[in-house]
Amino acid sequence: MALRELKVCLLGDPGVGKSSIVWRFVEDSFDPNINPTVGASFMTKTVQYQNELHKFLIWDTAGQERFRALAPMYYRGSAAAIIVYDITKEETFSTLKNWVKELRQHSPPNIVVASAGNKCDLIDVREVMERDTKDYADSIHAVFVETSAKNAINKNELAIEISRRIPSTD
Ligand code: GDP
């Protein structure tokens, strides 16, 4: 079975749950006291998609360097960029829109853009409506998934949707 390596980077404000999403995807666990990412961390996970193995090479950035010199290092050569926001914090959704503009200007033209509305377990304090993000994501041809790293909601959906959008090598 063919093995493809897919570099993926996570972008988004500090505290939205980037590391927790990766941890849930790779280890299927959640650590409420997860250490803030310093610099960037790297993890891999291989999953089967149709007749291929997709090895995700995941770069989890610290967030603080948004729009600064470091960020392009992570999205350069990436098959996909996952921009994470927190559904309970409207301002993190504005950051997502800024990231989309940044990626449009500087990333590989065929990069798959995915938006992840994390902490969807906290519906009582929701500030960003699912419908609004869905409409926005559709308008820019981006993947959109709401996730809860805490409650394991849609833990594999981002990977599945990214795989679906990567052209097959057949
Ligand atoms: P990062 O800075 O974007 O990597 O965010 P972290 O993964 O470090 O998470 C920041 C905080 O949000 C931590 O206290 C996590 O426990 C919490 N968190 C992450 N994901 C979720 C989630 O899906 N639901 C809830 N309720 N809290 C979460």
UniProtKB/TrEMBL annotation:
PROSITE patterns: RAB, RAS. Its main location: membrane. Keywords: Cytoplasmic vesicle, Endosome, GTP-binding, Lipoprotein, Membrane, Nucleotide-binding, Prenylation. It is a lipid-anchor. One of its GO terms (molecular function) is GTPase activity. InterPro entries: P-loop_NTPase (IPR027417), Rab (IPR050227), Small_GTP-bd (IPR005225), Small_GTPase (IPR001806). It is found in: Cytoplasmic vesicle, Phagosome membrane; Early endosome. It comes from the Eukaryota. The keyword ATP-binding does not apply. GO terms for cellular component: early endosome; phagocytic vesicle membrane. SMART domains: RAB, RAN, RAS, RHO. NCBIfam families: small_GTP (TIGR00231). Belongs to the small GTPase superfamily. Rab family. This is Ras-related protein Rab-22A. It comes from Muntiacus muntjak (Barking deer).
